[in-house]
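Protocol step 4 of 6: record predicted structures for both targets in the notebook before any analysis. Target 1:
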Amino acid sequence: MFLKNWLPLWCVLLNPLFLLAADVTHYDIAIYGATPGGIAAARSAAKNGAKVLLIEPTAHIGGLTTSGLSHTDFRTFEGLSGAFLEFSEHVLKYYENKYGKDSMQAKTSRRGTHAEPHVNELVFEKLLTELPTITVLKNATLQSVETTSVGDEKVLKTMLIRREQKNLSIAATVFIDGTYEGDLMALAGIPYHVGREAKSQYGESLAPDKEDKQLQAYNFRMIMTRNPANRVEITQPANYNRDTYEDILTLLEIGKIKQIFDYPSRCVFKAQLPLLPNEKYDINDVSNGLVRLSMPGKNLKWPDGTAKERAAIFQTHLDYHLGLLWFLKQDPKVPEKYRSEVTQWGWCKDEFTDNNHLPWQLYVREARRMKGTYVFTEKDTDAEPGDVRAKFHPQSIACGDYGPNCHGTSHEGPLFGGKHTGEFYKRVSPYQIPYHCLLANKVNNLLVPVAVSSSHVGFCALRLEPIWMSLGQAAGVSAREKVRSGVSLHKLEFSHLQELLHAEKSATIYVSDVPPDHPLFRAVQWLGSKGGLHQLVAGNTKTYGQRGENIEGQYYKAYPLHDFRAEEKIDEKLLTRWLRYLPEMHRIAATAAIAEKKFTTRGEIVQELYKHRQMK
């Protein structure tokens, strides 16, 4: 049963499921949802020995990363850091160990960022078992949440989960919602939003004129191959209805569709490039296409839906995907060249082996979004005035380099040949994400890194697995700091959280030439958190969002004008500005040290400033 957020506490306490609960088990940190964001939170939370429980309602961890989304959304490799970078490095090591460092599998993994779903799952499992204080419970569903009040703050006390026909009551010092849907926060009575805000609410150019309940559309991310040795033939699905698909014939006959499988457009199934290891493809919806896999409007009951309602939506999407594929493969009215093409494709024998080689999860691009202490909006991805960089956030705990993008929220015209509305793709420069996006108002011990506090448009920038892993990592660090200090999440010191994240090689600002393994990484990230990297390069409408040279598909070389240039000589004006980031006594000592050592380059200067930032 899904409790609405207006129900009073006594309704929760009188829930018969609570009365049937076993003894309460205590953890330092409890996380519901083993998505990549939830897993990143668990690993960071447990790094100082905290006792962590990670609960997953399904039989498989990893969310969409292990359920078909293998073509990861980011723009530049220079934008990857922290938990996602560590994960991808382990993936690359897996391929190198199994096939060899110079193998095609290692090369097509693109530094470990593009992996087969079963490999992603193996790596996530390994990363969790490395930390002995993490306990993982699968097939455990959340039933209810008990809260109380301490002063003017709400505190989550226990959550009741159901596993193997038994009730388990879990208490924790800190709770983290790692679900795509925000299921934990909703049961805890935290305010949230479903749908699109009006343009006037946050002044967003991409928002609709009027508020509505539309959601970004969902589809499956199927994994397919043309390799006969690993191919499972496409067969007729159980709920096939030919009439649903007949109108696509017109598009095929007039040549509007070039191929059934192609990239990036004039096709039915987007076979994303670059190719995955072992000749596999991540199949996705065709942006702005005439034929879509995404089904806007069919997902409206998902966010607040019961398990039964969600199962029905899942099946509707699956029936449509499989029926369309079967129609194109065998229907005699489909031109032979298309039918012949489809027969070359099939499922992968070694993927989703317990589910007929089909993904376990639907790609839930958007569901609930928390109404938190800070709401991330389109404006947070816009330029800082006169700067090439995006808006400066001194409380940043993560960053992203992929602009707001939405596959559509409604549909006009016929199913085939019509048009999704509410679709947008905006080019921006890398942006920062502030800490308070993770926090609910006046809630002492809950962090929400996935159904993060944001507008519809803002969420369309944040809804990517590398970003969710960065936000999850920040949630894990914050949770363990609360456990250590006893301080409310709202009162943790931002600069200390940033230092801890930088120590874990997680960036809070994009710097193209100082990667996480660079000796200056922590110093340059500290400088960026003070504002020292903003206004280094003047920006305008031409330079803002300017990308580097295209590598392949959606991937580019580093964003220009976002480098630090450590070897460049510093001018007096910039040195004076950077010195102001230190307290007065520290500034005097740093100035003397710089003069004595005759430091003149940006790299030398920032390293010296970093040493003096906390001088006793």
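Target 2:
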Amino acid sequence: MGKTSHGTVLIVEDEADLRFILSSHLRACGFDVLEAGDGCAGFEVATEALPDLIIMDVGLPKMDGIATTRALKADERTVNIPVIMLTARSNTEDVLRGLEAGAQEYLYKPFDITELIARVQTVHRLAIARRELDHLNAKLEAEVDAKGQQLQILYDFMRELHETNSWSPILDLMIRSVKRITSAKRISLLLKDTKSGNLVCERAIGIDPSIVESIRVKAVEGIAGQVFNSGKTLSARTYGHAVGSHQNYTRDAFLSTPLISTSLQGCDGIIGVLNITEKEDDAPFTEDEIECVRSIADASAIALDNVLRRERLEQSIRILLQTVGHLAEYRDEETTVHLQRVSQLARVLATELAREGPYADAGADEFVEMLVQAAPMHDIGKVGIPDEILIKPGKLTDEEFQIMKTHTDIGRRVLSQAVDPVHPVPLLQMCIDIAYCHHERFNGRGYPRRISGEQIPLSARIIALVDAYDAITSERRYSKAKSHEAAVEIIRSESGEHFDPVIVKAFLRCHEQFRRIETELEDKPAMLSTGVE
């Protein structure tokens, strides 16, 4: 078995006998040796073989040692190769010229071969140390760059997650961010189906889209079932033995492809499993990648859990509002058909506003649905009005009317008690706006705040027109029901005065739908009411 080489030394010397002597001693010390007899040949050998060290004579033919050294130091391939210069010249100027050219050491001829070997070994060790340090620095720079990219991805993910408050965009963001972190070719997100108990594939990359929706996994089977039930993260490798554990990570041998499978832990339990496999470079997933995936999964699970809780809360609030909204109507001896009409008319008008005009953006589906849910709360404040005023036949006196007008502020105060300033619910705030402001007029002559124009919440401006239309076309204690055509003309004439002109224009475009709803939901029999305008 041959000896292990310490490295390669290039001797550039025009004296053949001296090259032989140096070569013999260097080989005896464990170095591989290359030789060249002139500067041009030395430069060519150095740039091709890239030796660990060069012994360079100054007095060379074709190109002297100083010029050759300058050429080597100017070439990026050889700039870091150390040079020991040999010369028969003893003046200080030549030494300085050699050192300025880039030589690390300088020896005068004749020299002690033992001293030369010692200097070669010292310079070689320093060169190896420098090379290792450069390699380490390059590795650290690459790691820092990789960590910087990962941190940027996590920052982008958290910022976008903070701005996302619905289910589907969170799932899309999670998959997209995991793809950026890991460069995996196959990613699947399985969420628990509360009805069947199975894990259902909600999002996937690298899987035939036609089969994604049909993927069902029992929550007790396979790797996904193991992760779902343990709540841990499984990191599998392509080969090798189990390599121990760290925190909640399980390491195990895996014989097909690297894999990360991690659970999504919500407040009420595990809601799903995220699987990542098939890296683009076919390498195992790194510890940093696993940590980043875990962070994305944890943050996404919390966000999804918050969405579920908010949806449940909003559903409870909707049911409660529907129930509470009927209280005032029952005391007012109206049928609940009035509330149904107001809600349906509000949907028609808000949807029409969404089609064109300055309120198109405000008429998004979410706004429309909230408006429909909040509409029945417009007169909730009537629960605080005395019966002798609320159900009085005929017209109210001025004093009674002033008391009746307080139902707007009563509604605001009652509903405001349910507001959590830390976690506000938009639906509840809309209910407050409608109850408090649906008797404001666009010209500022309404009540209770006497605000005007766009100071009045859009939801209240819509309900003001809808409630007025229903009051005009319905039988009330103090007035007979008017025709649909009469209601249209009254509302048209009040554009810019009582009602927002933009909303009136939308009403005029869809008023036939109002007629149909009033006909379908006509009071049978009509119940008398004060129906405050």
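Step 5 preliminary note on target 2. The first helix runs from residue 16 to 28. The mean pLDDT is 84.
Proceed to step 6 after PI sign-off.
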